[in-house]
Fold these 3 entries.
Entry 1:
Amino acid sequence: MKKVIVNEKTSSVALDILKQAGEVVYMPSGDLTEFTRLIKDVTAVLLDTTIEFTPELMDVAPLLKVISRTGTGVDNVDVEAATKRGIMVLHTPDANTVTAAEHTVALIGAITKHLVFLDAETRKGNFKTARRLYLPIDLDGKTLGIVGYGRIGKQVAKKCMGAFNMKVIIYDPCIEDSVVAPGVVRYSTEEPVYKQSDILTLHVPLTDETRNHVNEKVLSLMKPSAYLINAARGSIVDEKYLAWMLKENKLAGAAFDVMTNEPPRLDDDLLLAPHFVISPHSAALTTECTVRVACEAAQGIVDYLEGRHPRSIFNREGLNM
Ligand SMILES: NC(=O)c1ccc[n+]([C@@H]2O[C@H](COP(=O)([O-])OP(=O)(O)OC[C@H]3O[C@@H](n4cnc5c(N)ncnc54)[C@H](O)[C@@H]3O)[C@@H](O)[C@H]2O)c1
């Protein structure tokens, strides 16, 4: 019987799906040393974002045929190395879209309404002073800039236009005009989006092109009253420069779900910066979404093991499928 390893705490429904097709090694600790020891004879891996799947790790697992990511981004898998070794990389691009978009909206609310700060001040006994010390902003009529108008970017646009009457402007060089929703204004360059946004949210994948792209060059275009949201990937943003901007009041605030180093060091510049809200890469970790994503990722493995084509093969082209 083929062996499948699961490196994350996952739903029992997903484990039951996997058990239909193989022997399941359940390793919810996510510990790299244990993982390296256990993958020697596995055929498939159900993988979250905590382990970097390097070529060296692939070489420890000569029988490995499938890496199935429970999520959209596959940047913690060396896809080129996997393709060279004939390993199929699967992901679940649609299963977490709405959930990640909802979390993005929650981050927008948390930072622009100063919720974390106000909660802390109220608990310190500063009820009377905190409420007028540092005022939040209305979202109604504000301009939301979206960089990366894919699945999640589109959902964030829809929710913010519908719920908050925001104006939405976008930059995404890779899409057709036909996918841009009515009322959304598309720019062919990124500068106007950085300049005009009251809130700017990033929804691009982490690639060689986007890594560290949100740096001084574009961040310095933003209004000092603006907010930056990142629920995409940490390494897209120059975090040191952003921390400096927050300290120097060059930007009103930032709310992130992701950071370059996860978990970040407690003395990380950004964690120590004012007006910064962070969640622990948990945008897609709702009760419903964790089950949905794990089941879809598990089904992809079962499809492969039973000789069917899995639905979302990330390296389909590389594998000539
Ligand atoms: N925080 C989380 O838990 C979480 C959950 C889901 C997804 N994500 C991240 O969000 C990213 C986006 O997810 P998605 O499902 O919307 O992906 P998607 O592929 O549907 O959309 C990404 C969009 O970015 C655009 N893009 C690519 N390069 C660009 C660039 N240089 N400038 C502007 N636009 C560019 C693409 O054309 C595409 O439309 C994922 O790659 C993943 O890294 C994070």
Note: The chain is about 35% helix and 15% strand.
Entry 2:
Amino acid sequence: MDSRLLGWGGRKWRWTAKFALLACLILSLRPAFAGPRPSPSAKNANQAITSKARLTLRVYNYAGIDSASLASSEKVASAIFASLGVGTDWVDCPASRRKVRAYPTCNSDMGTTDLVLRILPRPMAVKLHHSNDSLGFAQTCSESEPACELNVFYDRIDELATKGYRADRILGYVIAHEVAHVLIGPAHSDEGIMRGEWTSPDLQHISLGLSLNFSTDQSRKLRLAVLRRAATPAQEDLIQANLIPR
Ligand SMILES: [Zn+2]
């Protein structure tokens, strides 16, 4: 082919082709640099949240954590429960009795899907005489009991923060761990969120934004426990008979 035929039009075509190829390469590389996306299973679980599978936590922030950090922790815990198909609502409640009137929602009657989360500073935690290593504890609570309580010892989380761990994320995981105790009892497992004592790699994992999980069996039990707490006696029979989804 006569090279003159390429002329400006030919050079232009070659540059256009090179540019198109470069654009394709950039576009094909972009997902590798994009932020984390929910896994398909998490997305499906999120879609499976029903209005029935919901918990409401009334939060008493006695430790005085700043609102942005607390919101971040609640978001972490919400994401953990969303992956199980359980929704969570958070209600700020007053840390002082003098402010009770300013929080009317916190004075309303509570049901079995309403939990009380108390985030305690050291002076309050000490009075409970609990194990020095523990990050929190939960009340043993039957499924028919309203207003079950979980407590977090925030000074111990603060201590972990001085070692470089992310306090907001650890608090989110401690809340999820203690909520699970309320819902499915005191048992621990050898790994994951329900490990009795998180190891340094666990804490690093949490701090880096990677997830510790509930086991498949724990996940199923947790979702069923929330549905049972929300169900009327007639609905509970249907859940038992597998006639409404868990
Ligand atoms: Zn525990």
Note: The longest strand covers residues 54-61.
Entry 3:
Amino acid sequence: MGHTSLDKIKALQKNPANVRNLCILAHVDHGKTTLADSLVASNGIISSRLAGKLRYLDSREDEQIRGITMKSSAISLHYASGEKDYLINLIDSPGHVDFSSEVSTAVRLCDGAIVIVDAVEGVCPQTQAVLRQAWLENIRPVLVINKIDRLIMELKLTSQEAYTHLQKILEQVNAVTGSLFTSKVLEDRAVKEERAEEDKEEGDIKPAECPGSEQVYDWSAGLEDSDDSQLYFSPDQGNVVFASAIDGWGFSIQQFAQIHSQRMGIRAEVLLKTLWGDFYLNAKAKKIMKGAHAKGKKPLFVQLVLDNIWSLYDAVVTRRDKEKIEKMMMSLGVKVMTRDSRHSDPKVLLSAICSQWLPVSQAVLFMVCDKLPSPLDMTSERIERLMSVGARRFHSLPLQTQELKTAFMQCSSDDTAPVIVFVSKMFMVDAKALPQNKQRPLTQEEMAQRRELARQRHTERLAAIQQTESGEGNAQSGSTTPATTPGQMQGLPLKAKPEEEEEKETFVAFARVYSGVVRRGQKVFVMGPKYDPAQGLACLPPVPHLACCTMDSLYLLMGRELEELEEVPSGNVLGIGGLEECVLKSATLSTSPALPPFIPLNFEATPIVRVAIEPKHPSEMPKLVRGMRLLNQADPCAEVLIQETGEHVLVTAGEVHLQRCLDDLRERFAKIEISASKPIIPFRETVIRPPKVDMVNEDLGKQQKVAVIHQVKESDTLHLDPSGLVTLTTPNRQATVGVRAIPLPEEVTLLLEGSADLIRTLEQAGQAQREGRTLDMSTWTLDALMVLKSRLEVLLQGRKWRNAVDRIWAFGPRRYGPNILLNSVEGYQRPSVWHCLEREKGEKEGGAKAEASAIRDFDNSVVSGFQLATLSGPMCEEPLMGVCFSVERWDMNFPTQRTHLDSVTEKDSNSLDASVSESPGEGAMAGASHGRLVDCYGPFSGQLIAAVKEACRHAFQAKPQRLMAAMYTCEIMATAEVLGRVYGVLGKREGRVLQEEMKEGTEMFIIKAVLPVAESFGFADEIRKRTSGLASPQLVFSHWEVISSDPSWVPTTEEEYLHFGEKADSANQALKYMNGVRRRKGLYVEEKIVEHGEKQRTLSKNK
Ligand SMILES: Nc1nc2c(ncn2[C@@H]2O[C@H](COP(=O)(O)OP(=O)(O)OP(=O)(O)O)[C@@H](O)[C@H]2O)c(=O)[nH]1
Ligand SMILES: [Mg+2]
């Protein structure tokens, strides 16, 4: 097929019914880019001989070198199916976990996805992850089972075995979909019930206002009666293609049904139903019968499909049987060029035959056009989901906003339709690669025009020279300004321009139009993530979180190339230039201020690997800063920050991602030499219950307690009681706080960690309530919060935790972390953090409210102290985790009150609640309360914050402290021969194997293990090296784990001395980690630098 012209694509863009926006998703190395190559070749963009080898969409150099995709890139393809012409906007995505954020950016812009599964490896962790992502974004997937040639050539399976194997893979994939579906049905039912309740409240006005609403309510109630048959992958549904992308073939059973129906005279529909499944051909009766397995017959799929392919491979690759090949080619009606048939590599001939017989691009593109939805088929469910940002519900949005849903549904390209565009990422292009600046072959007219221009210029120049020559005398006597000749003037800008352009790289936005027509130079609003359409519709400009920008240029994304466009109609993927000033990473653009920003992309990867970066030459700092800013904009997942220490820190998802970011910084963004520190490994600090045994498993008895308590030095303001309660008085002696640290049960920590977003919403609601606003939370959020509360109640059982959940004062650090501040002050009443939930239930808090307003300011100081204490712990200034600080005493006495209440004895300190209950209403106390007001913003509040922080730190130190390490999980696939080496590497790096099983039907073992992040650097490389590339793990952050050894431990008993020696530093991993962090942060490290000095000297002498 020839190259599709730009005009053709422009025409195709205008018909959204025949546009398909789709992405290719899979686990790493399952063949996405290779398949994309075949599809690209079908459009004549690359030669079909190179398809599969070129990996055209891997345009970066490092992608080609490493052989993995690192970014998602799009290309528009034309496909003609019968009389219909389709436009396929294809996005290839990376499969490596480190780049899973790129997958999110791709999935958002699509309506469908091709999910690829390697026929040998089957469903892998990333396959599950991408299926989940597709599910979350509500896009429909189709399946390609790739690398079937490996079953023939590598595993040497017979066709019958291969069939069983393929069935298993299909089951695996469907099992993942099934579990996603089940959870969704349950969720839907909850939502439906919520809707039903709302409807009851609001009467029946809604259906008229909200078009398309029937569809929303048309949800099935339960698992039993919801139809999920459409959902699963099944060859007879036409949503599965079997392929070998590298050899260029692929088929769906429709194709074979057609081929054989002609040959055997069986109706195609019958074949379609029976080709996949337990059916066989009864040759005598010429009938298709059920029960192939039971009767030991060859299933139809094996007989009619796989056997053909197997014998082709056998003839061409294994036996190289010329005659047989000739015969087969005849019967298939295939002709190949002689240079292919004579080629020394039989694979060349094979792919030449296959790509004519069963071209993979045809099979895949047909399936895509047939099964995947067009932009017109956006479900209202998906639209509502996109527009319901945060905890808001769709029906609480302003009416004008709700009306925009129609625009989405219609996907109209009328001039009256509002423009809606979503930018999912920004990527950088060389200015040279932009179509405006590219040299292209000139048309005949253009050449004539240029010739004419050149001629004109020449005559002008001649005239000018004559003029200057004649006017030389004037110039000398006249103006002193250096008169440049026109000739020079023309020369100057010409010279200056290319240099400028070379320097410049521009950002192009990766975007999709959901409604309206986007035109070049059009002005649109940019909705910030916090933009609220209600505000936008009500306020006069400037509206918060709303900006305006111009789309300077529009591009058609063609893989490595960009083509310039004048306008892009609704339903298409495009590139937009000129947004770098107003869009950071992603954005929602619209001509209507009623549009809310789309929900944020959901990223699966947590950025965890941090490095500090500095330029080789300090003078280049500004360049580095600029480069890092650009990198931050260009990468969806990387984070760039400046730490308190002044270091510039880059946070990435993993080692490979880090490497790519550093390369980018060096070569594109900063263009300077940089040096990166060793990865900064995050730790957490926590306390545990006193251990019962010592390091050699001997019973400890009481001695540990004594050792711990000595760590806190008492002074006149600080008092520690043996039970661990720390009492601290502020320097001005006006306040005393008593704090105790208690380890939280592990499950509670986990729950808090997992509910961070929810807690943040709770905190925001609390904040809003304190400011007298209300935050409209969806019933779903409220329910989730109630569930969180009740789960905490269940987990926090026992005498120590009585009523603890209601007494929670705050979470920290940053107000949503996994630590709790508990109010155990006797007689001090404050609204609980769950207060905003109670409002919904209609409970009255009259008295408490008045009180709360009076003491709020000091209350805040305590919370701030707690936040500071949890943000950095005493061991190595890392955040705390899983610690509960119970405030058991809080006394205040104010100087103002003391003067007023002289009669009260000095010792008898006023508790705060006493002063609060006195202050309102009493005229005489006005002065006092005024004094307090001044105080609470003055130095006293600072002292209180510091006191609370110190008290928390000391309370923390009074308990046995431990470090917590971040852990990765990894799944390693390895053959039996290299298994031992994999274990060796894991053992050396303190990894722990969780599970080991053999993959069915293969010789591969799958090992699941956890590995501390601190030990993970170079792990993947080491595994690869030690196993000669046979095993390659992918590391995903999973959880935090307490390191069991005590960093401050020193041997105390005889046995321990014997076991660990005097220094005991060889065994103490925790101490090593802690000292490492302390050294990095420039904190004091208690270490002997030279030990046994004499011995060292003799040693060096002897050498
Ligand atoms: N045997 C065989 N190898 C294949 C097939 N398809 C792809 N490969 C090989 O698998 C490797 C990975 O292919 P890619 O297309 O780069 O895989 P990918 O899914 O794009 O990988 P990432 O983008 O890094 O996730 C390459 O070495 C291909 O040659 C196939 O059908 N059969
Ligand atoms: Mg790839």
Note: The chain has a mean pLDDT of 79.
